[in-house]
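Form 12-C: Joint structure prediction
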Amino acid sequence: MENFSLTRSELVQLTADTFIISFNEWIDFEPIQFIMIETETSIVRKPFGLGRWNGKLAIGVQIIGPGTNYIVQQSVLEAHGPCGKGFVPPEGKGAMIATPACLPMALDLHKRYGCDVFIGSLEELSIEIPFPLVVGDEAFLNLLRSLEGYDWFLVIGSDQMEKISYDILKGKAEVFVSFNEYMACGIGACRGCAKETKNGLKHLCIDGPVLRGEEVWS
Amino acid sequence: MELRPPIVIASGTGGMGEYLKLIDPKHIGAYTLKTITFNPRRGNPPPRLIATQNYLINSIGLENVGVEKFIEELENRVYDELFKKVKVIFSFAGENFEEYLLVAQKMAPYQDRFVAFECNFSCPNVHFNPLSNVVELERMLSELRKRLNVFLIAKLGVEGAFIEEIAKIVEDCGWNGVTLINTIRALHVDGDRIIKGGISGPVLKPIALRAVYEVRKKTNLYIIASGGIMNEQDAEQFFKVGANAISVGTALYKDPKMIEKIAQKFS
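Section 2 - Result
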């Protein structure tokens, strides 16, 4: 865990509002760990999942407000991390199901564990990606219904996309979800990112961000 | 109490020492632990936080393991590394006056390990507000003073009474210091969600400055100023109106390195 400045190496636009930012600095991290990035628009830092892009440290950013817009505009970002518990998949064949902003995380997980990756997007992407892409809600639902023969799934995206995915996939294999909750410190100090689970409160910055879906939604 | 640098990590925001992963301890005068209560507390249900450019509202609700478990952790040396690196302030509270006494009684044998005890009389995220009953508060302050032989600090808020009048009672009861101020009850509407909690951050600074100014005029207590201190300029203003030390909380979330910047200016 450390403080660092990240200098932008590359900014890749995937859709109208989604970008990949790669950095010149190298940081060791475990799959699905995240960093907390400072913005001018909030007095707390915001969490972004770590991954790789063209061999460099990278994050994906979907612009959903002034904070994420700020991050895309900057050439230098202040951050700390890596935060969170690294995701270690169970034995067997697995697949990650994610939104375009999760591409760097997906590339990293695929490289480390050889799992399949499926990207669901509302729009076509502006670049070719090495994973199957489905565009639109109906295609995404059809994809989820078609997935068979897996031992585990990892779902990362919006709250709504994660819940829909869990409901369709839960009978097919073990489903892990990277949950979202408002965060302030990212290191276990503030206790703000509490999540209700059937095993009591979990704190996503130290117990997560990945939890078993059934812990939260059973 | 001598704090060098005169910078305290605020209770709650600093957790149980986690920020030592990000801040060199030489920049910290004292580290206040999260508030410990007599019984374990699960805290409030999520959502617990909302942040804007000017404020943070938190509704953690004093989540903690309770004093018995905390003592067990102390005896199991869980915090030994923390004690080695920094001076530590123990923060405690109760759900009624009796529980304050019970926590004090349990912790009295361990008091020498701490540079001070901070009694949290002002958490806006629990229903009990000790500052609203001055007679009972005075009795409690006297009882706690009798039972604890440690530098005693009362953490006061601005809800319940004029803060300088409470601070005078704190001083008359033989206490050593006050932390001014705590968060204040606030509410944020985010679409259909309503988040109630205690507000902190830059919006709190003028209120905290006034509190420090008024309490300094009326008492000789050691004052730890807390509320909206986001940078060196904020810290300087609090020292100017009478603070002996400053407590940094929400600013940790914006930039943990801010502690170092403030420490370099005021060491």
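Section 3 - Comments
Helices of chain A lie at 66-73, 103-113, 137-146, 159-169, 204-207, 213-217. Chain A touches chain B at residues 1-3, 38, 40-45, 78, 80, 181-185, 187-196, 200-201 (CB under 8 Å).
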